[in-house]
Amino acid sequence: MGKIIRGRVFKYGDDINTDVIFPGKYTYSITDPAEMAKHALEDLDPEFAKKAKPGDVIVAGKNFGMGSSREQAAQCLVALGIGAVIAKSFARIFFRNAINNGLLAIQSEETSRALETGDEIEIDVEKGEIRSAKGTFSFPPLPPSVLEIFEAGGLIPYIREKIGRKG
């Protein structure tokens, strides 16, 4: 435990839907996560996938991940190495898909308002803290079960790990 995420912020607005996160036109033609990553947010920010580095963080407004239930939206961000998404609020299905895929989704209205593109941040997952030059922001600690899923890299690796321990 004690996961620390360090990266730069990419800030976007409200109501970023799953078609914007991973364009729907690729839903049935791209299945390889590495290829999916190349198209993350391309309709919103065509250079995002080229600029983002492992650990970087998306900061957004309200209702991030609205729209269809397609899990590729979370998968492409994980494959790109995005460390977390911080938003004022999340669409319920995207939030669940993020957990299932091992993508940290933090709801923090204060952080969303304060941070801007290019800010350097550090997230202490266990302590529930987001640190930046603009201050330290708290978020509720992850429930132990969610923390275990996140640290395992998603629900499927978590289940495999649990089954492996019993068998």
Question: Short description, anyone?
Answer:
The protein is built from eight helices and seven strands.
Can you describe this structure?
- This protein is of the alpha/beta class.
- The protein has a single domain (4-166), classed as Aconitase, domain 4, CATH 3.20.19.10.
- The chain has helices at residues 18-21, 33-37, 48-51, 72-80, 92-100, 109-114, 144-152, 155-166; strands spanning 4-11, 57-60, 84-87, 104-107, 120-124, 129-132, 135-138.
- A seven-stranded mixed sheet has the order 4-3-2-1-5-6-7.
- Helix 7 crosses helix 8 (155-166).
- The mean pLDDT is 94.
How many distinct beta strands? 7
Read across the widest sheet, the strand sequence of neighbours is 4-3-2-1-5-6-7
Distance between the termini: 24 Å
Discrete helix count: 8
How large, in whole angstroms, is the Cα Rg? 15 Å
